[in-house]
From TrEMBL:
Organism expressing this protein natively: freshwater metagenome
Protein name: Unannotated protein
Length: 62
């Protein structure tokens, strides 16, 4: 499915507002997580960057 087809389907389903809200929510969560210190049960700092998907510089967006 091309990006244009995806947007057309989402629009026809009346879900554009829902998608915009979800993107805003995800960005807000990412912002908060970037500013807080997260620790495990033993008090050891959790590296949230290690949990993020790795970006492959050789891969191309399709």
């Amino acid at each position: 499915m091309t990006p244009d087809q995806f947007i057309k389907e989402v629009s026809q389903a009346g879900q554009i507002t829902t998608m915009v809200a979800e993107v805003a929510r995800a960005k807000a969560i990412a912002q908060v997580l970037g500013q807080v210190k997260i620790v495990d049960k033993s008090g050891k700092k959790v590296d949230i960057q290690a949990l993020a998907p790795k970006k492959d510089p050789e891969s191309k967006s399709e």
